[in-house]
Automatic annotation (TrEMBL):
Name under which the protein is recorded: FAD-linked oxidase
Family statement: Belongs to the oxygen-dependent FAD-linked oxidoreductase family.
Organism from which the protein derives: Planosporangium flavigriseum
Superkingdom of source: Bacteria
Annotated ranges, domain FAD-binding PCMH-type: 44-212
Length: 462
């Protein structure tokens, strides 16, 4: 490799960044480099030319300008939960040090820095009786989750998390800093809320908080043997639920590990998740039909503070290697349920951790007050497949997971939000949008990132 190659040139001159930035600069071989670039999804191993630990928006802008000077693309990572593909030969900007959380109880809003996890937002909002539209795990980065759509715990009542972004700050490909809202750079504001990191690096967002402090929520684990009864009952039951109730159901193949509760350890089970943001007695009445379907292995649905919401889905907290893909379903018909059970029911030996359905509709079907680019508002359910990419499974899990998705292909409707798309091609990602929205997104991309500097992660331009 000669010194005229952009990567070599950058590696030789990256030390000049030290004087431009408040945050640290890491080159391959430096102490701390591997830890800085590590993703939560251990199957994704980044190989950047340089990693920049941004502490401010000015750091991000300087990093982007420096990358442009050296002809290098730019990737960004907060927690690495959504790292579905490696970023190589680039400048990797890490944002986990950008940890601003400022609640304004007078307006029921919070300003969130690019590196903040939902746990911090939940903790900061709780004393005011407020809650964010966070998802199944509070360990996930709030900004990326929100800009990728955000189908949260109260999604049917309040819609996508992206629907409640009031403003954001973004660094675009020329290193400019833009404060963006409905009245300033309106087209970019539309695109980023749903188009995620395709247009620049979002360094902070202002989002609305909801007047929620408690939920009637939790989960029920059923034995895998009753999966057919549970999924078909779920299909009919969801049509009776009000928008205050958001649910999901998953077939889980749990490992024989000590951290898994003994009755579930090493078992295939069906996990119903139930979140009712209204009266607890009403929540219990609504849940009663599913409680009557079959005896539970564990039933832990009860009144809980919002600060305890991680107990609902019980997502893993330790980094792991994984493969994931999702799709949207127009409806959950008997044929769809039968197809899922045939491909992924407990009678099938599969190297998958989870096959999941989420009930959509309600506020998710309505466009935000300030329209955005989140696709999928016509879908009734989402379908999601997750498998572990442990050594020896790297080729098997994607093939098996793909076959499970193939089983529901006749029932898929376009519109999968980026957060659920997994490792997809640019064409597959773009297929989520209607032709007119697709064209608009590409025009905005051309305006703000004509050289396609931001082409990693879930990028819809190759």
């Amino acid at each position: 490799m000669t010194a005229t190659h952009p990567e070599a040139s950058a590696a030789l001159t990256a030390t000049e960044l030290v004087g431009r930035l408040a945050g640290p600069v890491f080159l391959p071989g430096d102490v701390g480099f591997d830890a800085e670039i590590a993703a939560w999804n251990l199957a994704t191993v980044h190989r950047p030319v340089v990693a920049i630990g941004a502490t401010t928006t000015a750091d991000v802008a300087a990093a982007v300008r420096w990358a442009a000077e050296h002809g290098l693309p730019v990737a960004v990572q907060a927690t690495g939960h959504g790292a579905v593909a490696p970023a190589t030969g680039c400048v990797l900007v890490t944002t986990h040090r950008m940890d601003e959380v400022t609640v304004d109880p007078a307006t029921n809003t919070v300003r969130v820095g690019a590196g903040v996890k939902w746990a911090r937002v939940i903790e900061a909002a709780a004393p005011y009786g407020l809650a964010p539209l966070s998802g199944s795990s509070s360990d996930v980065g709030a900004v990326s989750y929100t800009l990728g759509g955000g189908i949260g715990l109260m999604a049917r009542r309040y819609g996508y998390a992206a629907d409640h972004v009031r403003s954001l700050q973004i660094v675009t490909a020329d290193g400019s800093i833009h404060d963006v809202d409905a009245d300033h750079h309106a087209a970019l504001f539309w695109a980023v809320r749903g188009g995620k990191g395709n247009f620049g690096i979002v360094t902070s967002i202002e989002i609305a908080l909801m007047p929620i402090s408690t939920l009637y929520a939790g989960g029920i684990f059923y034995p895998g043997a009753v999966a057919t009864d549970v999924l078909h009952a779920y299909r009919t039951w969801t049509s009776t639920l009000p928008e205050e109730t958001t649910t999901s159901v998953a077939i889980l193949r749990l490992p024989p590990l000590p951290e898994v509760p003994e009755p579930l350890r090493g078992q295939t089970v069906v996990h119903l998740r139930f979140i009712h943001s209204g009266d607890a007695d009403e929540g219990a009445r609504l849940l009663a039909p599913m409680r009557a379907v079959a005896p539970a292995v564990i039933d832990y649905v009860d009144k809980m503070p919002f600060t305890a919401v991680d107990a609902i889905h019980q997502d893993p907290t330790d980094p792991m290697p994984g493969w994931e893909r999702g799709a949207m379903l127009a409806d959950l018909t008997p044929e769809v349920v039968d197809a899922i059970l045939a491909a992924a029911g407990p009678q099938v030996e599969l190297p998958l951790v989870m096959v999941e359905l989420r009930h959509l509709g309600g506020a998710l079907s309505r466009q935000a007050d300030v329209p955005n680019a989140v696709p999928g508002r016509g879908a009734g359910f989402s379908f999601f497949v997750l498998g572990p990419l442990f050594p020896g499974l790297e080729g098997i899990v994607p093939a098996v997971g793909g076959a499970v998705l193939d089983a529901v292909t006749p029932f898929i409707t376009p519109g999968t939000p980026l957060n659920f798309a997994g490792k997809a091609t640019p064409d597959q990602l773009l297929a989520a949008w209607a032709p007119e929205d697709r064209e608009r997104l590409l025009q905005i991309k051309e305006e703000y990132d004509p050289a396609n500097m931001f082409r990693f992660g879930q990028a819809f331009v190759a």
